[in-house]
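Work Package 3 committed the consortium to producing structural models of liganded targets before the mid-term review. Because experimental data for this complex are still outstanding, the team generated a predictive model from sequence and the ligand definition alone, so that downstream docking and mutagenesis planning could proceed in parallel. The input record is reproduced below exactly as it was submitted to the modelling pipeline, together with the SMILES string for NAP.
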Amino acid sequence: MKAIQLHELGEPDVLAIHEVPIPEPAPGEVLIKVHAAGVNPPDLYVRRGFVNIPREIRPQVQLPHTPGTDVSGVVVASRSAEWREGDEVFGLLRFPPTGQKGRAYAEYTTAPAADLARKPAGIDHVRAAAVPMSALTAYQYLFDHVRPAADQTVLVNGAAGGVGHFAVQLAKHLGASVIAVASGRHEQFLAGLGADRFVDYTSQDVATAVKDVDLLIDTVGGPHAHRLLPVVRPGGRIGAVFPGDYRGSRSSWRRCTRTGRSWASWPI
Ligand SMILES: NC(=O)c1ccc[n+]([C@@H]2O[C@H](COP(=O)([O-])OP(=O)(O)OC[C@H]3O[C@@H](n4cnc5c(N)ncnc54)[C@H](OP(=O)(O)O)[C@@H]3O)[C@@H](O)[C@H]2O)c1
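The resulting structure, written out as C-alpha cells with the ligand in place, is given here.
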C-alpha cells in the first residue's frame, strides 16, 4: 500500500509517499480501508519534532513515522468481537502519536477496536475524519475537567478553530452563555453555532472588552496566554487546551483554578 511518511523531521516537504506493507491487525484490532484521514495540530508538531513543546516535556519521534490519528473508513478485516467486515467506522487512533504502526495517512491502517465508533450514516467520511480529536478534546474539557453550570458564562478563545467550534456547541448544550473570540470573518459562523456574543480579537482588546467570565476555554495558550486572565472572575476557572504561560501578576488572578499546563520557559 501507499503511505505518507516522515523519514526526517521538518517542513511539509519531508512528507513523502512510500510503498509499505499493509499492516496486520493484532488480536483486538481491525484493519481499516482508509477513506479519509483528519489533520490536526499534533500532526504538525510531530513533523517538526515537537519543537513548540518545552524541552523538559518534549516527546521523541521515532522515524520513519506515518502520521495521522483521526480516521474514517471501512473495516476490511477484524480480529475483534466488536467490529465486522464492512462496518463504517471513525475514531482517534493510539494517541499520543509516538509509535509507528497503523497510522492514518495511508491506504490502510490498523486500529484497536476500542478506539473506534460507528460512523453515523448522515455524515460522509471526510466530515467524520475531521471530528474525533478536536471534538473529544472539547468534550473532555467541558464534561470531565471544567464543566460549566447552566447559569455560567464561558469564553472560548479560538472559537472558530477545530477544538473551539466544538467547545462553543458543547457549552451551549450544557446551558451556558457563550462568548466566542475569533477573527471577524468567523462571526456569522459562530452565531450559527449558538454563540451569545462575539469578540473579534483582531480589532478589540479582549481583556478590556470582557469581564467576569466563570470559565475560560483557551485553545490558543502560548507565551502570551496571561493577557486573557483579566476576563476571568476571581475564583473562576481556566481550561488550558494548549500549554500557556498563565503566571500573571495580579493576586486576584491567582485565585483562578486551571486545568492544563502552565509553562513559562517557551522555546519559541
Ligand atoms: N485539534 C485537536 O484535536 C487538539 C487536541 C488537543 C489540543 N489541541 C491544541 O489546541 C489548539 C487549537 O487546536 P485547533 O485544532 O482548534 O486549531 P485550529 O483549528 O488551527 O484553530 C486555532 C484557532 O486559533 C485562533 N487564534 C490564533 N491566534 C489567536 C489569538 N491571538 N487570539 C484568539 N484566537 C486566535 C484562530 O482563530 P481565527 O481563525 O479566528 O483567527 C484559529 O481558528 C492547538 O494548540 C492544539 O495543539 C488541539
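Reviewers should note the following from the model. Confidence is low (pLDDT under 50) at residues 264-268. These observations will guide the Year 2 experiments.
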